[in-house]
Amino acid sequence: MAKDHGAQIKDDTLYEExxxxxxxxxxxxxIANARANGSLDHRSDRLEDRTKDELYEEAQxxxxxxxxxxxxxxxxxxxxxxx
Length: 83
What we know:
Strand content: under 5%
Number of domains: 2
Number of strands: 0
Largest sheet: none
Mean pLDDT: 82
Structural class: mainly alpha
Helix content: 40-55%
Order of helices and strands: HHHH
Distance between the termini: 21 Å
């Protein structure tokens, strides 16, 4: 069972998995919280079907750096690598 990381971390299990993979505390918290509130629930539809603006917004929510210089294909790849 995952340790309770307090009210600020919404998905303790995912947070711990990301930390074990070497993600920073801040990045792990952003991703875990985004998944918990449903903003990372993009498995139900194809990323390629989204507009570049939609992909950019999601990349912003999960904290992908360099997103403003990415094209649509690069945004798709960056979002997938954060799953």
